[in-house]
Amino acid sequence: MFESAELGHAIDKAAYEQEIPGLREALLDAQYDLVASKAFPVILVIGGVDGAGKSATVAALNEWMDPRHIRTHGLSDPSDEELERPHMWRFWRQLPPKGRMGIFDGSWYTWPIVERAYGRIKEARLDQSLEQVRRFEQMLIDEGALVLKFWMHLSRDAQKKRLKKLEADPLTRWRVTDRDWKHFAMYDTFRAVAERALRSTSTAGAPWTVIEATDPRYQKLAVGRILLERLRARLDGPAPAPAPVAAPPVAAGLDGRNVLRSLDLTQRLPKESYERELETWQGRLNLLTRHKAFRDHSVILVFEGSDAAGKGGGIRRVTQALDLRLCEITPIAAPTEEERAQPYLWRFWRHVPRKGRFQIFDRSWYGRVLVERVEGFCAEADWMRAYGEINDFEDQLVRSGAILAKFWLAISPEEQLRRFQARQESRFKRFKITDEDWRNRDKWPAYEAAVCDMLDRTSTEIAPWTLVESEDKAFGRIKILRTLCARLEAVL
């Protein structure tokens, strides 16, 4: 893959200076068209060997275009805050919104390539990381992003010459570190790993472009030309059609029954037993949060369920046992303009907690395969691919040390009607009932089918759903606390 980039491309200064004004004008026009359209984000990944002029190329792009509409990220080692979350979190939260560009000098490729080159991870782990990257980039593409990836290549001799030249100049000496020379000594190893990474992640939607970096003028022009060509083609051409997506299969019951109708909603807990068990399980939950191992984990709770199923009451019984300084509740409503300009999961990525914290979602990322699916707020392709994206997201949460518990609170249509009527009659509860709640009742069968699909396709070994029979609120609340304590005890 690198052989074609070792041909000694160069451009003389006169030709460079002659082309630059026209290229800058065209790039600026395309950028302003992008800003005006707010149609999609542009994501540039700039990778390559040490000393290959990556930073100079990024600086040129910021000079040629309006930097107010570009987010440039020079990423090195992760911070303590970033280490306490999934590896991809530091990149998730820095994605540009629609109508903007994001340039990553150092990206999601750096860690797997460096770790494998140093022998700190095996081939299997490298392959897993690269597969995760492929799925991440495909998600960006499916969300409409234009993804451009450039790898700046130098031969071994050219890299040595470049590092010595930088080191000899007092003005650029600071750019060369001991780490750069160490990596140079490992040139063949890094080259082999990088070529493996690029070959396995150069896809139709996000191909790699390998650019020979011996001549800085050629290097900058090549990146500018390709950016202009791809951006102009996207702006002037038809919107890309969504790719067909096959959701994970659902196991259909031969008797026509589904998992929700199989629940025993007649289960009850007497008041005396409820008060005793509430004190017991809240006390146990509080002690678990004081366990010395708790500081190495975060806890993420997802509460979903039918309207008036008791999500708020269940959440309150959990938070009563917690130090509220370590707990945050995020109620999910319709997305804001800022959130609609980002990938669907972005509004949830930003709330991933640090270790030693609780994050509680009152409704969650499952809205895409529930309300958005049933109400037609997104295309079928969007909610079909969401199952896989959600499973990937939850897998990364758990592998980073999060304890994830998902609760579906179930009630019958008759009990929901009774609770709706009680809310309407209570002046201090009337905010809990809306016209939309009544409209949703008319679509009970559609929501029930969507819930069954969701449970089948996203109840995984590491992130299973807990179905909570909430016809009796006391029984449901104790089941939530008991399940949560069991999950924490299993990990701690």
Automatic annotation (TrEMBL):
One of its GO terms (molecular function) is polyphosphate:AMP phosphotransferase activity. Transmembrane segments: none annotated. One of its GO terms (biological process) is polyphosphate metabolic process. It comes from Mesoterricola sediminis. Residues 11-233, 270-489 form the Polyphosphate kinase-2-related domain. Pfam families: PPK2. InterPro entries: P-loop_NTPase, PolyP_AMP_Tfrase, PPK2-related. It comes from the Bacteria. The lineage of its organism: Bacteria, Pseudomonadati, Acidobacteriota, Holophagae, Holophagales. This is Polyphosphate:AMP phosphotransferase.
